Amino acid sequence: MGELYATNMATRASWAHSRPDEAPVTGDRGTAGGVVYRVPVLDHYLVYAPLHGLIAVVNRAGLDAIGVGLAGGPVPAEIAGIVRVLLSPGREPTRIPAGPVRRPLFLGIIPTRGCNLACGYCAFGDTPDTSGMTPDTARAAVDAYFGLFNGSSDPRREIHFFGGEPLFRPGLVDFVTGYARSIADREGLVLHLEISTNGLCSPSRARFMGEQLDTVVLSIDGPAAIHDRNRPAPGGRPTFEQVMRTAEIISDSSAELVIRSCVTQESLPLLLSWANTLALRLRPATVCFERLTTTSHSEAAGLRAPDPWEFARQVVAASRLLQRHGITAVTSTTDTSRIVATCCPVGQDALIVSADGAVDACYLLEDQWRRKGLDLRLGRLDPATPALVLDTEAVDRVRAVAATHPRRCEGCISHLHCAGGCHVDHQAATTDSGYDDLCISTRAITIAQLLDRCGQADLADAWLDSGSDLHVSVLQPADLLEEMAP
């Protein structure tokens, strides 16, 4: 058979499930039909079983031996540990919720759809601030949300602020923060408050976020020339220095700082130096790199989506640099620390309330998801009761959007971390026509990250630079071990 090669096996990872109480440990031999992935990496194979927390690198003889062992045959000693783990009880995949909405993922509050920036790729800058949420609507939404948990022993509550730019209505953010904290303090609850913001605010407002909120997701796209092109104020006024000042204030506070950077083809060559700036100038807990999604706005602004292959190489390099500083680096579809059924709020019973009382599953503009043929409306807020009146059929319909993935996704090594990406923007994931650019970058980054976690960074680098071998690995149509050709 030749020498078996099983190096630096990493096993029993501690996954952070979105809803761990709905992912019970099973007592069967293997789980989810024995989900084991294998991907060729030069003259090796990456073997990955996410529900068992197993990553290993083997040669072809070792891979064949794993197949024999899973079928009940004898295996060499070098492979026995891998087979033993794969035949042991693992976790069930995280499931889409079912039944009445009793434990929503979070309450989303949209104080306004208006925004004080004119980002080149975003529709919100064209949205007039005509109907901000009133305190009465906000109070009713918070009361209704807390009321859903009546009788629950779960003490955790989460409220997220979205926009437009939520700080365009700072008084509403202040009101919800104070009101929700007063209820949590009175009832002995653990409240998590989070905001997604562009950071274009006064120092006093930045200090408020650092002192009163738990997580601040702040968008900065790169160094000044990049950020000011992508995210100017109306009239083209630069915003980088003011936003970085906000980030520094948050960084020095008790709040968790998450930096979100939208990456374009123009900013891609600067990604590593930008990561170094973030590590030295700020202390974010997490940096999230996201590929530009091409829109009519981005095309009009002359912004281009990054090459998926080079995006993967640059993100891997930037992630390693950040991790050396103790900073987590992710993209929304490549966070291998979690097992998900959907990588966004859709399908996880998030309840997002707009100024007019509409309750949706998605924080994007209604026009965006309706143009894609999606109806993500869940119901309405009844301020008189107060109650979140949810349409049962609508809840089931939205859950079905998140639960339906094409066969290609189910055979992909990234499936349990990506789950098809954004249900609105990643429409290509609903076809079987092949991998699009998001799929390519997701798969390449995921494989490289798993190799890193297995102590094989040098192998990952050689593979990323290999050209044709890289393309063969990333573009193979199915990664499941059981579908491997003899």
Task: Note down, in words, how this protein is organized.
The structure is a single chain. With 486 residues, this protein is of the alpha/beta class. It has 2 domains: 6-94 and 406-483, no CATH class; 107-392, Aldolase class I (TIM Barrel, Alpha-Beta Barrel), CATH 3.20.20. Helices cover 36% and strands 16% of the residues. The protein has 17 helices and 15 strands. The protein has an 11-stranded mixed sheet. A 4-stranded antiparallel sheet has the order 1-4-3-2, with helices on both faces. Helix 1 packs across helix 2, helix 5 runs parallel beside helix 7 (240-251) and helix 15 packs antiparallel against helix 16 (457-464). It is globular and about 70 Å long. It starts with 5 loop residues before the first strand and ends in an 11-residue tail after the last helix. Mean pLDDT is 89; it is low at 12-33 and 429-433.
CATH architecture of the largest domain: Alpha-Beta Barrel
Helix content: 25-40%
Total E-strand runs: 15
Strand content: 15-25%
Question: How many distinct helices?
Answer: 17
Structural class: alpha/beta
**CATH-defined topology of the largest domain:** TIM Barrel
Mean residue pLDDT: 89
- Strand arrangement within the widest β-sheet reads 11-10-9-8-7-6-5-12-13-14-15
Indicate how many domains the architecture comprises.
2
Uncertain residue ranges: 12-33, 429-433
CATH superfamily of the largest domain: Aldolase class I
Task: Summarize this structure briefly.
By secondary structure, the protein is α/β, with parallel strands linked by helices. Helix content is 36%, strand content 16%. It has helices at residues 60-70, 77-86, 135-147, 170-187, 203-212, 224-230, 240-251, 271-281, 296-300, 308-324, 366-371, 392-403, 407-410, 415-418, 437-453, 457-464, 468-475, and strands at 6-10, 37-41, 44-49, 54-58, 107-109, 156-161, 190-197, 215-219, 256-263, 286-291, 328-330, 351-353, 358-360, 377-382, 387-390.
